[in-house]
Amino acid sequence: MTQTQFHHLSAPNHRGRRLLMALAALLLLSGFAAVPLGAAPRADGDAYTVTVTGGGEVYPFGDAPELGSLANVDGTSPVVAITPTPDGEGYWLATRDGGVHPFGSAGNFGDVSDIDLAQPIVAMAATPTGRGYWMAARDGGIFAFGDAEFLGSAGNIDLAQPIVAMAATPTGHGYWMAGADGGVFSYGDAVFHGSTGALRLVSPVTTMVATSSGRGYWLFAEDGGVFAFGDAPFRGSMAGSLTGERIIGGSANSAGTGYWLAADSGSVFAFGAVGWFGRATAGAEEPVAAIAARPSGDGYWLVTNPGVAAVGPPVPINSGTGRRIVYSNSGQRVWLVEADGRVFDSYLVSGKAFTPAPGTYSVYSKSPKAWAGHGGITMDNMVRFAKGRRLAIGFHSIPVYANGRPMQSEDQLGTYRSAGCVRQRVDKAAQLYQWAPLGTTVVVLP
Question: Which of 103, 171, 269, 321 has a Cα-to-Cα distance from 436 of 20 to 30 A?
């Protein structure tokens, strides 16, 4: 009997998504503010983003067949992965809400779109038979369908960084997961070949690809860095060569002789004995979200996600240009701004009045855990960008006492509460830590 394994389930379920999507778009076009689909308005004025167009457009290149997409399907969640079938004649699109959409020769073995997930889905891998697949959530939870075996998860582990990728062994009896810091978790017959978990990365890892032998894997980072382990050969990278774009995914041919890196801008970079078959015309309104190559290596697919409309306070004027963090001290709000001016996220925080002084800074140090030096107080995901009279000033999660009690509630964000640093919600702190590599510009406004 086929069993489906579920782990870590909690958080609002979005039923009636299509109706709410249409209503949100109508309100947006009418000049009214909107809130997240399925969510009630919040009094704190937090900025929300609402998807206003269809997503999941698939673009085939080379000999990759055109099999369909989610572009004309209303209310779809953003696509986080495209996983090809072993025969190269089909693929699955996995969405953030746990949906699985098969095309071509891909079969439908189930999904978790109707389950209350604690954290969103971030990755997917197929079994070698093509009759099953796994999905991984941001917190390390694993969901197995069809002939995919549940072999363990990181759902109960206190992760240093969230899970961002996974890969399966060629036997179908094991899999790996990778965190944003390059930490690697092995299950079943998957062998640990190394990781970057102990290194200080310039940019977070976004993708993991296993070799066809199962005796190695690559980790691809947002800045184009490539880390090869086991029998995975290093064929080159884009580290230090990207301008205004970031690597969102990668894929390899089954022979393991080469790989591709894909950027959110639509650019594709080929390394080793693989061909370059084209790029997508993408941008801020519809960035590329994923890439998958046919096992034969004679083509690949690129997936773009829908444009989003920011609902909430715009980025303040005179807040600099380029990719940056904007922190309004008087507004107690942060904006994460991409190089093209698109707002990645915006939310309320708790800092200290008039601290630090207005100006332009840059991220100079990061650590997954920090200590206040008294009372057993700790903070997660510290991102330091300024220096105070005695201690560094940075962004981090709401501090907790030694007994685990937080120093303030999430409802108090947006008010001055800190002794100098900038406090964030736990998930927002993890997100900023991943989003902002060393050297990221920080603009502090009065």
Answer: 269
